[in-house]
Amino acid sequence: MSKNVTLTMDEDLIRAARKVALDRNTSVNNLVRGFLESLVAESGEQRAAMTELEGFFREKPFAIGTKNWTRADLYER
C-alpha cells in the first residue's frame, strides 16, 4: 500500500531535481523513492555487517601482543 508524503524543499532544489529527473527519464517522485530505498537498504546492510563482525569477535579468541613502541617511534622519520 502506497502512502502520500508531503515534502517542503527550496524552489531551486526542486527545479534542479526536475532537471535530473528529466535527464534520467524519470520523475522526482521516483528519485526520492530510490534514494530512500537505498538509504534503508544501506542501513540494513550496515547493521547486518556489524552483527556478523560482533559474532566473529565473540566466537574467535584473539590476543593483542605487547606494546613495544612509543608514540614518538611512530612519528619518527
Distinctive features:
mainly alpha, 77 residues
Q: Give the amount of beta strand, in percent.
A: under 5%
User: What structural class do helix, strand and pairing data support?
Assistant: mainly alpha
Mean pLDDT figure = 90
Helix segment tally? 3
Question: Between the first and last Cα atoms, what is the distance in angstroms?
Answer: 63 Å
Strand-and-helix sequence, N→C?
Answer: HHH
Give a verbal description of the structure.
The protein is mainly α. The chain has a domain at 11-60. Helices cover 65% and strands 0% of the residues. The chain has three helices and no strands. It has helices at 11-23, 28-59, 71-75. The radius of gyration is 24 Å and the shape is elongated. The model has no long low-confidence stretch (mean pLDDT 90).
